C-alpha cells in the first residue's frame, strides 16, 4: 500500500504505558512512517496523566490527550479523582472526555459509583463542549441506559473497542455514536465479521487500544499504533472495499467528530 497520501487516525492508544518505556520514540516513529498522522490518547486515572501530558507536549501535532476517569479505576476515592479530571479540563484543551463508561467484567463492587462517575463526566463533556470516548465491557445496555438518562442530544462520541452484536451496533449508531474498531476484527471468534458487512463505513473509526488487543498475527503480544494498517486491511476485507477507502472514510469520521465540537 502506498501511504503517502493516506492519513490514519489512531483514535485510542495508551502510548504512555510503561510497556513502551524502552522504545517509545521508535515505536511512535514506526507508526508515523506507517501513515498514522494522529494518535488520540485516552486517560485512565490521575496516575496516568503525567506520562500522557509529556507525550502531548513532545508531539503536539500528532499526540492528542483526552481527560477522564476510566471505569476500572472508579474506587472509594472516585470523587477525588473526578475533581482532578475537572481541574485539568479547566486548564487545558483536551480533544475529548475519555475513557469513561461502565465495566462489569471484573468487579461489580463499585457499579453505583461507576454510574455516578459516568453521568458526571457526561455533564463535563457538555460543559466543555467535548465528545466522549466510551469504554463499555459487559455493560452495553447499562451504558446506553445512562446515555438516555443523560438525555443530551448533542452528546456524541465513540464506543471504543466495539465488539457487540449487530443490534447493539445499530443502537450505538442511532444514538449518534461511532464504533471504534480494533484488533478484535482480526480474531477468529471476534464476531465483527458478522457486524461490519452490515454497517456503513461512515459509522466507524480505527483504533488499536495499544498496548492491548494486538491484531493477528501479533495476537497476545504488545500492540502498537503501527498495526492500524493490519486492522484497516481486515475491515476492508470484511466490508468489501479498498483499504484506501477504509482509511479515508474513518479518518474523515474521526476529524468530523472533533470539528463538530469546535465549530459549535
Ligand atoms: Zn483503553
Automatic annotation (TrEMBL):
InterPro entries: Metal_Hydrolase, TatD-like, TatD/YcfH-like. The keyword Metal-binding applies. Keywords: Hydrolase, Metal-binding. One of its GO terms (molecular function) is hydrolase activity. It comes from the Bacteria. Signal peptide: none annotated. It holds the Pfam family TatD_DNase. PANTHER family: D-AMINOACYL-TRNA DEACYLASE, HYDROLASE TATD. This is TatD family hydrolase. It comes from Arcicella rigui. The lineage of its organism: Bacteria, Pseudomonadati, Bacteroidota, Cytophagia, Cytophagales.
Amino acid at each position: 500500500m502506498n501511504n503517502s497520501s493516506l492519513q490514519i487516525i489512531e483514535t485510542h492508544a495508551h502510548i504512555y504505558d510503561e510497556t513502551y518505556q524502552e522504545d517509545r520514540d521508535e515505536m511512535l516513529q514506526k507508526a508515523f512512517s506507517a501513515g498514522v498522522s494522529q494518535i488520540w490518547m485516552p486517560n485512565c486515572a490521575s496516575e496516568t496523566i503525567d506520562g500522557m501530558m509529556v507525550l502531548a507536549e513532545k508531539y503536539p501535532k500528532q499526540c492528542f490527550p483526552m481527560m477522564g476517569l476510566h471505569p476500572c479505576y472508579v474506587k472509594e476515592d472516585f470523587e477525588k479523582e473526578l475533581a482532578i479530571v475537572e481541574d485539568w479540563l479547566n486548564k487545558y484543551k483536551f480533544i475529548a472526555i475519555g475513557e469513561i463508561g461502565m465495566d462489569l467484567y471484573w468487579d461489580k463492587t463499585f457499579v453505583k459509583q461507576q454510574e455516578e462517575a459516568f453521568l458526571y463526566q457526561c455533564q463535563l463533556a457538555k460543559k466543555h463542549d467535548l465528545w466522549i470516548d466510551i469504554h463499555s465491557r459487559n455493560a452495553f445496555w447499562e451504558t446506553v441506559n445512562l446515555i438516555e438518562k443523560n438525555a443530551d442530544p448533542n452528546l456524541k462520541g465513540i464506543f471504543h473497542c466495539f465488539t457487540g452484536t449487530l443490534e447493539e451496533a445499530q443502537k450505538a449508531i442511532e444514538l449518534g455514536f461511532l464504533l471504534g474498531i480494533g484488533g478484535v476484527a482480526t480474531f477468529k471468534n471476534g464476531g465483527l465479521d458478522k457486524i461490519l458487512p452490515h454497517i456503513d463505513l461512515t459509522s466507524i473509526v480505527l483504533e488499536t487500544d495499544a498496548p492491548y488487543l494486538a491484531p493477528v498475527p501479533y495476537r497476545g503480544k504488545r500492540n502498537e499504533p503501527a498495526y492500524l494498517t493490519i486492522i484497516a486491511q481486515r475491515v476492508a476485507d470484511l466490508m468489501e472495499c479498498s483499504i484506501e477507502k477504509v482509511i479515508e472514510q474513518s479518518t474523515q469520521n474521526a476529524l468530523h467528530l472533533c470539528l463538530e465540537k469546535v465549530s459549535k
